[in-house]
Every structure is written in structure tokens, then in C-alpha cells.
């Protein structure tokens, strides 16, 4: 990779970082508005038009709150916990392909932070590190509720990571690669003519069972309702962030939204064709042949439409996460563990066997 | 066992069907219900009352802060008979009666009047029995005004300075409800 190209990729990484944070910021607003609408209420609408400046007001509030350290807490780890949670949440967005590449003469800018051929493994590794942030924070608080919440988070994440990984193996068996870009590019249909197969090449139609398992596990991994046992206000006050205040608390809440963003992004890459969209090649054909655009710009517009499609999928996913949160009550802890170990893991293994059989007999590939 | 009432029902505890155990149909049912609410809130008016700009309307039978009425000529109606104090179950009303002097005919309607009239709003239960007891239609509980919260206990004892309705027609009320500008104009022309 040449130096200018490296610079461009650096910019893409920074942009990804900024977009993750921006989306997480507005997730707090969206969550409140969606919650309000689902409950026939109005939601925040005072700060700015439609309350759009509400996240800013919340940030000011969090920054100016008292910074509290509980007695007997391990100060270094107490600060390190939320930092780790945030860092791991942000790191995993680096490998997600948000689009193809932009072409400016000889320069190509890939709309993906880093392309590594083990992208999926990287995401999994980072996400499983995320539990350390919660664990360290909960332990360093010197509070039994925090510790209980942290232990719950750890056991929940480990249990559901298994089922999630197993559900994913079925996808990887079909794609034969761990690279997120490769997986995306496989979920498309090259060729002319009018057909719906642009959508039916998405993995969700080839792996419906795997997708259900994956999305349930994604809810558990991001600690969202109905699996928000780690923070569980009714039993544990606030779970692992009981003792946290000010922006350290904000970082934990933020990390959750960044995790939701990453989870939905990974989900749209793995199951919903990532930056592919229906009739994309017809669109590209139209741009190159029917308009006076240069070949580069025709390609760039085609790619940018892909970015729009990717974000549309991500936002739909985030909306679904919030919709579920304000619909379903929380599971009991034993129900959570039973669901994870005795239902989802066997189902995921069955799904692997099924996929293996179908591949062997050539039904799918 | 014979049931004690007709309301008793025998509950059957059937084993759950596969669809019920799978839990997913129930989830989708719940999601569809919340989505209906989402569109209702997005398209129709929400139930929220945006408080400082909007206020919840009072019920027409609401019993709020008391008012001591004046008659059409602007004279106090109260004759300090004490029936309201007798009727009051919370013993919130006290008054001192006095005799009307010569030259005060424009101030008081009857020959006897209340020199002081106090209602303790901490004792008052806003039952409206004083209003019912009053033979002179002098005391009413306003339908559009609440007794406001205060910091000091003695501020809750309302004397005549805060109870008697103002002389100007614009501030008068009828049966406890503030007069509209048209009603006030009509009253003003009657007085003139």
C-alpha cells in the first residue's frame, strides 16, 4: 500500500470512527422518541427542532455531573473499565465494509477501514473483549450489585457467543471466507434482466434459522432487552454501572449503542447483502450508458448508492432493536441460560448439519 | 367443592402447544401491537399534554379555591350567619360578625357582616358543604382555580383580603367561573 493510499484509508478509519459515534449519539435520541411513540407519547421535543439537540444537552449534563469514586474502589480499574468498553466497541467497526471503492483517476478509496481476510474473526475477538470492560468496571466498583451485574454480563456473553459463533459457521461454510467484503460480494447476482434474485441472493434467505439464532444472540451480546440482565434495574439497581456517574456512565451507555450499531452492521453484511441493493447492476448500466457521466463518476454514484443502502439496512436494524426493547419484558436469569444452552446451541448445531448436508448434495452452495 | 359465588371459574392448565413454546409467534404479536401504537402516535394526536403551553381542562364540577361573592351592586353578600362554619366537617372556617354602620350600605348587603372571615386551606377538604349551606349565595368554590402550594403554614390561612372577589367586573366570577369579557361588559352596563 502506497503512502497516499494509506492516508486515504486513515481518513476512512477516522470517518468510520466519527460515524459510529454520531450514530450512537443519535441512538440515544432515537431510542427516546421511538419509546415515546410506541407508548403514544411525544418524546423529547424541546431542545432544537423536534428535539434534535437533545443528545447535545444530555452530553453537557453528563460532563458537568459530579465525578464520583466509591470508597474502596480500585480507582485505576474504575476508570479503565468504561474506557475499555468504549474502545472495544469502536474498534470492531473498523473492518466493516460500508461500500465498494471510490475511483478518482488512479486512486481507489475503499469505503472500509481495513480489509483483512479474517474480518469476521476480528469482530468476534473484539466483541468478546468487550465483556472485560463490563467485568472490570463491575469488579472495581466495590459494590455487590455491580459485581453481580458484571458476572451476569460475563456469563451471558460467553454463553451466547457460542450459539452466535455456531450460527455463523453455517454462513462461513457457504461463503468459504472470513472476509466481510468477500461475504458481501458473494451476496449479489451479476447479470441483466428484471429479476428479484438481487434480494434472494442475500444470506437471510439461505440461512433463515441461522439468522434467527444470530439476531437473538446479537440482542444478548449487546445487553439489550429482553436480555438486559446485566443492568436489570429491578433487581440490581443499575448492574455493572451502579456506581458510575458523569461521563464514565455516559461511556458505558454509549458503548452499548456503538455495539448495537456494530451488531446491526455485521448483521446486514452477513445476512442482508451489505452494500448490495436490488437492481444495482441495471442502475450501473444506466449510469454508464444512458447518462453523460464519466466512467469514474458513474461508478462512484453506484458505490455511494450502495453506502446509502448499507446505512438504510443498519438503521432498519437499529430500529428493530429499539422496537423489540420497548415491546418485550426481560427474561428471568434461568430462562436466559436455558434458552442459550439448551435451545440455541443445539439449534445452531442442527443448522450446521443441515447446511453441510445441503452443500454436500448440492442444493445450495 | 361448591363455589361460594358465581364468579368462580375452573381454570384449565393445558400444556403449551409447540407454537406457544417456541415463543416467536407471541413476540410477533407483541411487536405488531406496539407498531400499531407507533403509527397511532405518529399520525394522530398523542395523549401527552405539553404542560406550560397546554393545560388539562378542569372538570365543570371541580371544587377549587373559595371566593366570597359580591352582589350586583358590588356589596358583600356574606352576613356572617356562621352556617358555613357549622357545616364545615373540617372546621376550617372561622369568622367574626359585626354590625353595619351608617354610610356602609354600599359595602355590605345586610345589616350584619363579617368583620373577618378566615378559611384554613390546610384543613379544608374542598367538600363544598359551605357552598351548599350558605343561604345568601355568598361562598363558592371556584371551578377554575386551585389553592396554590406555599412555603409557610400561616400563608394557608386565607382572610377576607384574599377571599372576597374584586369589585371590578372584569375580575368577577359567576358560580365560581371567571366571567368572560362579554359577561363582564353586561355586568358593567347593569351597574351603571
From TrEMBL, chain A:
GO biological process, one term: aerobic respiration
UniProt cross-references to Pfam families, sorted A to Z: NADHdh
Coiled-coil segments: none
Keyword Translocase: yes
This enzyme's EC code(s): 7.1.1.-
GO CC terms in record: plasma membrane
Compartment(s): Cell membrane; Membrane
Transmembrane segments: 6-29, 77-99, 119-141, 162-180, 200-220, 257-277, 297-324, 336-364
GO molecular function: NADH dehydrogenase activity; oxidoreductase activity, acting on NAD(P)H, quinone or similar compound as acceptor; quinone binding
Membrane-topology descriptor: Multi-pass membrane protein
Subunit organization: NDH-1 is composed of 14 different subunits. Subunits NuoA, H, J, K, L, M, N constitute the membrane sector of the complex.
Protein name: NADH-quinone oxidoreductase subunit H
The organism of origin for this protein: Hymenobacter cyanobacteriorum
Lineage, broadest ranks: Bacteria, Pseudomonadati, Bacteroidota, Cytophagia, Cytophagales
TrEMBL record, chain B:
EC annotation from Swiss-Prot or TrEMBL: 7.1.1.-
InterPro entries referenced in this protein's UniProt entry, alphabetically: 4Fe4S_Fe-S-bd (IPR017896), 4Fe4S_Fe_S_CS (IPR017900), NADH_quinone_OxRdtase_chainI (IPR010226)
UniProt remark on cofactor binding: Binds 2 [4Fe-4S] clusters per subunit.
Tree of life domain: Bacteria
Annotated Pfam families: Fer4_7
Cellular component terms per the entry's GO annotation: plasma membrane
Keyword NAD belongs to the record: yes
Residues that bind [4Fe-4S] cluster 1: 78, 81, 84, 134
Cofactor field: [4Fe-4S] cluster
Binding-site residues for [4Fe-4S] cluster 2, renumbered to this chain: 88, 124, 127, 130
Record keyword Amino-acid biosynthesis present: no
Transmembrane segments: none
Catalytic activity: a quinone + NADH + 5 H(+)(in) = a quinol + NAD(+) + 4 H(+)(out)
NCBIfam families documented for this protein: NuoI
Family statement drawn from the similarity comment of this UniProt entry: Belongs to the complex I 23 kDa subunit family.
Protein name: NADH-quinone oxidoreductase subunit I
Organism: Hymenobacter cyanobacteriorum
Amino acid at each position: 500500500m502506497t503512502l497516499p493510499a494509506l492516508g486515504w484509508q486513515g481518513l476512512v478509519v477516522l470517518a468510520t470512527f466519527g460515524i459510529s459515534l454520531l450514530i450512537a449519539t443519535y441512538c440515544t435520541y432515537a431510542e427516546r422518541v421511538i419509546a415515546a411513540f410506541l407508548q403514544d407519547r411525544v418524546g423529547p421535543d424541546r431542545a432544537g427542532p423536534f428535539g434534535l439537540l437533545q443528545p447535545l444537552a444530555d452530553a453537557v449534563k453528563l460532563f458537568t455531573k459530579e465525578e464520583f469514586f466509591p470508597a474502596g474502589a480500585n480507582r485505576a480499574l474504575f476508570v479503565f473499565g468504561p474506557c475499555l468498553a468504549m474502545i472495544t466497541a469502536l474498534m470492531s467497526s473498523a473492518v466493516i465494509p460500508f461500500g465498494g471503492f471510490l475511483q478518482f483517476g488512479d486512486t481507489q478509496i475503499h469505503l472500509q477501514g481495513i480489509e483483512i481476510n479474517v474480518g469476521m474473526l476480528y469482530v468476534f475477538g473484539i466483541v468478546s473483549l468487550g465483556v472485560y470492560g463490563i467485568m472490570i468496571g463491575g469488579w472495581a466498583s466495590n459494590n455487590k450489585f455491580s459485581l453481580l451485574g458484571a458476572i451476569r454480563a460475563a456469563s451471558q456473553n460467553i454463553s451466547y457467543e457460542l450459539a452466535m459463533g455456531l450460527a455463523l459457521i453455517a454462513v462461513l461454510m457457504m461463503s468459504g471466507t472470513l472476509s466481510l467484503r468477500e461475504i458481501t460480494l458473494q451476496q449479489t447476482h451479476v447479470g441483466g434482466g428484471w429479476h428479484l434474485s438481487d434480494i434472494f441472493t442475500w444470506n437471510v434467505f439461505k440461512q433463515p434459522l441461522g439468522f434467527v439464532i444470530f439476531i437473538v444472540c446479537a440482542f444478548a451480546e449487546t445487553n439489550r432487552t429482553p436480555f438486559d440482565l446485566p443492568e436489570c434495574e429491578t433487581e440490581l439497581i443499575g448492574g455493572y454501572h451502579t456506581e458510575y456517574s458523569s461521563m464514565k456512565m455516559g461511556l458505558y451507555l454509549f458503548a452499548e449503542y456503538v455495539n448495537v450499531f456494530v451488531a446491526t452492521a455485521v448483521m446486514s453484511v452477513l445476512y442482508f447483502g451489505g452494500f448490495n441493493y436490488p437492481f444495482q447492476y441495471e442502475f450501473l448500466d444506466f449510469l454508464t450508458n444512458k447518462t453523460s457521466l464519466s466512467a469514474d463518476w458513474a461508478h462512484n454514484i453506484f458505490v455511494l448508492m450502495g453506502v446509502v443502502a448499507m446505512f438504510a439496512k443498519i438503521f432498519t436494524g437499529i430500529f428493530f432493536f429499539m422496537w423489540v426493547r420497548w415491546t418485550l419484558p426481560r427474561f428471568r436469569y434461568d430462562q436466559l441460560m436455558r434458552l442459550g444452552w439448551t435451545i440455541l446451541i443445539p439449534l445452531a448445531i442442527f443448522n450446521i448439519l443441515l447446511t453441510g448436508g445441503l452443500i454436500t448434495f448440492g442444493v445450495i452452495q | 367443592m361448591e363455589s361460594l359465588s358465581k364468579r368462580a371459574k375452573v381454570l384449565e392448565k393445558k400444556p403449551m402447544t409447540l407454537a406457544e413454546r417456541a415463543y416467536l409467534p407471541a413476540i410477533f404479536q407483541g411487536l405488531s401491537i406496539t407498531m400499531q401504537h407507533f403509527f397511532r402516535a405518529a399520525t394522530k394526536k398523542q395523549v401527552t399534554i405539553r404542560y406550560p403551553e397546554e393545560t388539562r381542562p378542569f372538570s365543570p364540577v371541580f371544587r377549587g379555591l373559595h371566593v366570597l361573592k359580591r352582589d350586583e351592586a358590588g356589596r358583600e353578600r356574606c352576613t356572617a350567619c356562621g352556617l358555613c362554619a357549622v357545616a364545615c366537617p373540617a372546621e376550617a372556617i372561622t369568622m367574626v360578625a359585626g354590625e353595619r354602620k351608617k354610610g356602609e350600605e354600599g359595602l355590605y348587603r345586610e345589616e350584619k357582616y363579617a368583620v373577618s372571615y378566615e378559611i384554613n386551606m390546610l384543613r379544608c377538604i374542598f367538600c363544598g358543604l359551605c357552598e351548599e349551606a350558605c343561604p345568601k349565595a355568598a361562598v363558592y368554590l371556584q371551578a377554575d382555580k386551585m389553592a396554590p402550594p406555599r412555603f409557610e403554614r400561616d400563608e394557608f390561612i386565607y382572610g377576607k383580603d384574599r377571599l372576597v372577589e374584586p369589585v371590578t367586573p372584569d375580575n368577577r366570577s359567576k358560580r365560581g367561573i371567571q366571567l368572560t369579557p362579554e359577561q363582564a361588559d353586561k355586568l358593567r352596563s347593569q351597574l351603571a
